[in-house]
């Protein structure tokens, strides 16, 4: 991509739930700088939710993340399956939000399996629902969103800080 100077990237994914989330976010932002981008991690906000009840705290976090995405040109989403066979639902929303704004979307996953291989069954699951089988790493809408402007880089690696950063850096190199 030409003219990447001053391009800002929203760093999406379930990384915010990791025990070392702040460290992972800082490492990704440092890699962004190395490649001439400005990285923005969802935990970067100076949001004070202390004293708020859970629901208003959640709404405040949502709005803070929307504000960060509005200022970014690109999203790189960690699409590694999270709490199930598919990617984190919040990350999926963030990708959709950025797609609606016609921003650049890239993703990566540390799980190299096809989405359909992560679900028990062949044509249908245990409840009789059809299993989406399009030789894609995740739901077709998520893969489709990335294909127009980037793509999804998949690897078969354990979920460690080092592996996240290695695959994330490969995405930055492709940008």
UniProtKB/TrEMBL annotation:
Coiled-coil region(s) at which residues? Answer: none
What single Pfam family name could you report for this chain, choosing any that match? Nuc_deoxyrib_tr
**Which molecular function term from Gene Ontology is one that the record holds?**
5-hydroxymethyl-dUMP N-hydrolase activity
Query: Please, which domain of life does this record's source organism belong to?
Result: Bacteria
Species lineage: Bacteria, Pseudomonadati, Pseudomonadota, Gammaproteobacteria, Oceanospirillales
BP terms from Gene Ontology: deoxyribonucleoside monophosphate catabolic process
* Protein name per the record: Nucleoside 2-deoxyribosyltransferase
- Range of residues in the leader sequence: none
The species this protein belongs to is Amphritea balenae
Q: Which InterPro entries match?
A: 2'-dNMP_N-hydrolase, Nucleoside_deoxyribTrfase
């Amino acid at each position: 991509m030409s003219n990447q100077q001053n391009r800002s990237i929203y760093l999406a994914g379930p990384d915010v739930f990791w025990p070392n989330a702040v460290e992972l976010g800082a490492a990704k932002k440092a890699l962004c700088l190395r490649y001439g981008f400005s990285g923005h991690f969802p935990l970067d906000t100076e949001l004070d939710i202390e004293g708020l009840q859970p629901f208003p705290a959640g709404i405040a976090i949502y709005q803070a993340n929307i504000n960060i995405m509005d200022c970014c040109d690109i999203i790189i989403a960690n699409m590694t399956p999270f709490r199930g066979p598919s990617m984190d639902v919040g990350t999926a929303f963030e990708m959709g939000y950025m797609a609606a704004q016609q921003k650049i979307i890239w993703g990566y996953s540390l799980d190299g399996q096809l989405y359909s291989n992560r679900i028990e069954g062949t044509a249908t699951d245990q409840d009789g629902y059809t299993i989406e089988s399009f030789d894609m790493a995740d739901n077709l809408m998520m893969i489709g969103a990335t294909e127009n402007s980037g793509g999804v880089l998949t690897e078969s690696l354990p979920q460690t800080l080092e592996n996240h950063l290695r695959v994330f850096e490969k995405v930055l190199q492709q940008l």
